[in-house]
Design a protein that fits this description.
156 residues; 3-stranded antiparallel β-sheet; globular
C-alpha cells in the first residue's frame, strides 16, 4: 500500500460501476463502526442497507486514491448521512477530503450523527468544524430491532 500514501485523492459523483467497491468499503468500515459502538449484531451489508436506509436518495460521491475507490459519502442539503473509508486506506486524509467535498455541495446548517463509541468519526467531524449539539437515543435506521445512542454534531 505504500504507493497510495502520497497519492492524490480525487472525488467524483457515484457511477453504477462503483457499486461493488462501495459494498466492500461499507461492509468493512461498518463492521468497525458497529464494533466501536458495541453493536456488532446490528450489521447489515450495503446490499441491504442501501435500500432500507435510502442511500440513493442522497447525493453520493466517491473518493479515489489512484485507481482504487477509497471511500464514499452521501448527503442532502443539510445532512451528511453516510461517510465510509476503506479501513485498509484509513489515516490518509480521505475522510477529511470527503467531508470537505460534501460541505462544498451543502447548505448550512449541516448535521451529522455519530454512534456513541465511534470516537474516530466524532474527532474527524470536530476537526472539520462540527460541534456536538446533543446526544439522542432511538432505533437504528434500517435495522430498527437495535436501540442506538448517537451524538448529533452540527456545523453552522
Amino acid at each position: 500500500m505504500k504507493g497510495y500514501e502520497m497519492g492524490t485523492v480525487v472525488i467524483r459523483d457515484y457511477r453504477k460501476e462503483d457499486w461493488p467497491r462501495l459494498q466492500a468499503i461499507h461492509d468493512a468500515a461498518r463492521k468497525n463502526e458497529l464494533r466501536l459502538a458495541g453493536l456488532e449484531e446490528a450489521f447489515l451489508p450495503l446490499a441491504i442497507a442501501a435500500e432500507s436506509e435510502g442511500l440513493f436518495d442522497y447525493t453520493v460521491r466517491v473518493a479515489w486514491l489512484g485507481d482504487t475507490a477509497a471511500g464514499f459519502s452521501a448527503f442532502a442539503e443539510d445532512e451528511l448521512a453516510w461517510l465510509y473509508v476503506d479501513p485498509a486506506l484509513s489515516r490518509r486524509g480521505i475522510g477529511t477530503r470527503l467531508v470537505r467535498d460534501a460541505l462544498e455541495h451543502m447548505g448550512r446548517p449541516v448535521s451529522v450523527e455519530v454512534l456513541v463509541g465511534n470516537e474516530p468519526a466524532r474527532r474527524l467531524y470536530e476537526r472539520c468544524g462540527f460541534r456536538l449539539t446533543e446526544t439522542v437515543s432511538g432505533r437504528m435506521p434500517g435495522n430498527e430491532a437495535f436501540p442506538v445512542t448517537c451524538h448529533v454534531l452540527r456545523l453552522d
